[in-house]
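so i finally got all the pieces together for this one. its three components total, 852 residues if u count the protein bits. some of the lines might not be protein, just check the labels. i wanna see the whole assembly predicted at once instead of chain by chain like last time, that was a mess tbh
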Amino acid sequence: MEPTFLYSLILSATLFTIGIVGVMWKRNAISLFMNVELMLNAANLAFVAFSREFGLMQGGALVLFIMTVAAAEAGVGLAIFIAIYRSRRHIRADEIDLLRG
Amino acid sequence: MGADILVYAVLYAVTVGAALGVLLNKDTVKSAMCLVLVMIALAGHYLYLGQEFVFAIQIIVYAGAIMVLFLFAIMLLNMREREVTPWYLRNSRFVGGAFALAFFILLAVGINTFGTIGEGRSPAPAPSIPELATLLTTKYSLPFLLTSVLLLVAVIGAVVMGRRTDPETGEDYLADEGELLQESL
Amino acid sequence: MDTGIAAYVPQVAWSQIAPFVILTLGGLLILALDALLDIVVKGITARRRDGVLTWVTAGTMVVSGMLFYGNTIGTSGRPFFEGALRADEFGNLGALIVLFGALVFVAMSPRLIRDRKLPAGEMYALLLFAVGGMTLLTVANELVTAFVCIEILSLALYVLTGIDRRNPRSGEAAFKYFILGAFASAFLVLGIAFIYGATGTTQLFGTGRLMQQMQVSESRIGARQLISDKQSYDLGLDEILFAGERPIRTATYETEQEGRAIVTKTSVETKTQPLNPIWLFLGFVLVLAGLCFKLSLAPFHMWAPDVYEGAPTIVTMLIATASKVAAFAFLIHFVEALSFWEHFPSASLFLLSSVAAVSIAWGNLGALTQTRMKRMLAYSSIAHGGYILVGVATLVSASVFSDPESHERIRNAILFYLFGYTLMNVLAFGIAAYLGKEGEGEIAAYRGLSARRPVLAGGMALAMISLLGLGIPGTIGFWGKYFVIKEAVSSGMTFLAGVAFIGSALSAYYYLRVVVAMYMLPAEKDEPAAGATMQPNTGYVFTLGLSGALIFFFGILPALFWALGG
């Protein structure tokens, strides 16, 4: 048991939790989405830590996929935010509420 | 061993501090800069774990490309705005905080079950880049191919959502949306 | 430098992956046609061009579906494409249901495109890529492949949800769908990380070679010995979980003095190590949470009503049917692989059952108070997700491993339910979209519909009665619920069966309210002008008729459904 492994996992859990809190607290959609990126980064760290600890090889490859997904999500997401912003002049998540019931 | 712990303490402090900066900063741009710091600190972490490849793409893709995209969106649309309501005035935030705390405890308990793992050995060396390349073209060849479809979908999606005018008629989406918004309010 | 890596050419089973390749190529063809038709054919009208695109999209899907059907017959259930895919009968038939839902979407879309002036090329290309992702998800055998597929279909669906740029509700729905979907995929990724950390593999089912050898030795100890001389990524979750041990590579370093230089020699060896059950369970919980978001199951369902209401109605139909069928197929394969773990039933049954029960309760109670049609259908689909999850929980209680016969029966029951669910929602959303503003808004607008539009009212009544399920035999919804609840009772899950039964009884109120409004209440005074909506195309009418006929047909002869699977 390497102490580095435990540190990495605890750090990953901390970052993931901060990301959850951020998604629940933030009002500005961009800050909110930044916290989602934080969560994905935390998961990446967990992948690398596990991969190294057990002498597995996939870690780096899996991180590559997650980064690609994160980039694609960011591209589409920011385009959606821009579309929303154009018609409303703000992207405050809790004030976008035409749909309710 | 002592030096290890010192490096870890510093990396941990920087990463968590910057992540808290993302969370607590009221200015979107400052939040984004803190996120860049988190990513760079994580890259340092990867380097320390002996994963040079992940270190490189973390810097290039995450801290470089993705964060530039964020800053671009913030600055282009001048969406730099402050969060007005203090967090402690909103009930839902306590619920969110409590949920996250419970989640962290769950994770920490889960992580802490390392007793079953053998003691006193060192993990195998990190894979070299040729090994990674082999994995990407054999075991993970399908997801690797699929990422190209994913990126194509993202490009089409960004074009559809991001454009300002109707490609056929050339009319502005904006004006019409404004009208509809007024109608529905 | 000698890397020790031999040149390697992956073996590609072309006949097996042809359906997906064709869908992707179709998407590229659509993009090319969209750009080139205007230039190549002089003076082509927008309507003609959209027509060509529609036919190309539909043709692609039909060809892909035929290839799928060809693969279904005589499928081996062996992993292929480096273990990333595994086409069993369930997955292939699930993919056919997905393609059916998508074809209905294509048949209904020309009217929407003309009505709201949508960009047909982008829409169909996104649809084809999304369907490619969904069909791959139904046969995915590898967690990362499944994750990338989920992302492909999610990104395409976010954009399709928001594609009606002139309608602010559409954009808002896309916004909410995106935020919660991205949040959910972070959970999914962390879950995959934990499962990977606990077992060292991301592949669900192994090649089966090891399982055969295990049957010879008939013991977990024998399996352990076999595990120890394998690389972890050659193994499937099923094999590692069965053995209860995982391979682990460790290195020993020796430094030697060679002349004046110090040389480090590394020797790597593979050993086995017991699994960490808590990591494994944590991984399962996180993946389940991520999938619950995508499947709009309680407690992660909050996006569903808003997104269902805001999205263009036929996109809502696609989200409610095709994407759900695909995600359920993956969930079932995932749970099946995990059920080789001896502690899995005891660890997960409570969790799966409570998600099912809460979804049924929340969906039905939420639907009671809804006054808008699409919101009501959204809550109804949350409840239906709960009923299907009752089937999944039953599946866990009778695992492939211990009771293969009843496992097969429950799987068939779930597949039948998914097919029926798709047909009913196609009919309900299709008619709502047919009626235009009148049908997509308040339920009160359905008053007196039987006098104005008798055929449509009849179809909607059929959809509602079929969605209600219990009580009136002769619809596919009845048999779907009957089979699932019967299997749950015979596996001893009486509590869940009771919850499903009570939930169905509750749902009578809101489903029959629509029927009562159409047949017994007089029309509201300000009746909307007839012909306010555009006349639908033939394909639209045909698919509505077909789904209505199928609901009846399989309602009377449910056993014929399995005859189709061969």
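Residues 168-199 of chain C form the longest helix (32 residues).
Residues 287 and 478 of chain C are 31 Å apart (CA to CA).
anyway lmk what u think
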